[in-house]
Write a structure and sequence with these properties.
The chain has 289 residues and is mostly helical. It folds into two domains: 198 residues, Alpha-lytic protease prodomain-like; 76 residues, Alpha-Beta Plaits, CATH 3.30.70. It contains eight helices and three strands. A three-stranded mixed β-sheet has the order 1-2-3, covered by helices on one side. Strand 2, helix 8 and strand 3 form a beta-alpha-beta unit. Helix 2 packs antiparallel against helix 3, helix 3 runs antiparallel to helix 6 and helix 5 runs antiparallel to helix 6. The longest helix has 30 residues. The two termini are 42 Å apart. 40% of the residues are buried.
Amino acid sequence: MQASSYLKLSVAVAIATIALKGAAWWWTGSVALAADALESLVNLAGALFALAMLTLAARPPDEGHPYGHHKAEFFSGGFEGVLIVFAALGIIWGAAQRLIHPEPVEALDLGVGLTVLSTALNGGLAYAMLRKARALNSMALEADARHLFADVWTSVGVVVGLIGVRLTGWGWLDAAVAIVVALNILREGVHLVMQSSSGLMDAAIDPAALAAIQAVLDHFAAKSIRFDHLVTRSAGQRRFADLHMHAPADWTLGRAAAMRGEVEAAMLLAVPGLRVTIQLLPTDMEAQS
């Protein structure tokens, strides 16, 4: 299944969970369930924006964007992070008002049942999406998956709180749980914003991919050539590596170019999808960059 298919499924699940949690809130009057339903509404907006950004990121390079549009995925992560932060602040405000002016919570069994059902939907989808995001190195998909996991933990906290209200009769516990849940959501939102900002600043590729590249270079370094000035960067699902390859001065250009081709092929095999640029230089020549 493609990344866009997961996001379309995320939209469908978000609509279903909004209906389930909205009904649970309507019947119970629980501020914690209202907070949970609001989080699912944010999920829907985030999934729609992620789908739009993923579509943009998949567009081929053009005259104005010769390196492609891959960084569009990071806008998705940042947007979802900001949505999560505002949702968390709204939940805290509403819960604080309920602490000051408590109201009874009703039909708890029905509310808990609907919330558990929606949590199962979100949890299964989030797990599958996160695995796919790591396989594709997709920031948009990872952001949406993490957002869904935040929603899962929100729902778990709400269920625990409602059970506590049922067992103790403490109505204020509903609002207190909503605030704790909101703080967890806020933490996740800040994390997404910071991760997206880092991606927009041309961060180096992940350590595992870098180690695979270095292993290839070490292997070829035994063949009378050496490498230096290795620079890597990530842009959405794309990863890039630039470096210098120094070959003996008595080699013909054809032989050096053939060796460079072997190095490029080995790097692509080690890190699928990697974009490699190798500058040829004689062994006794150094470059400034």
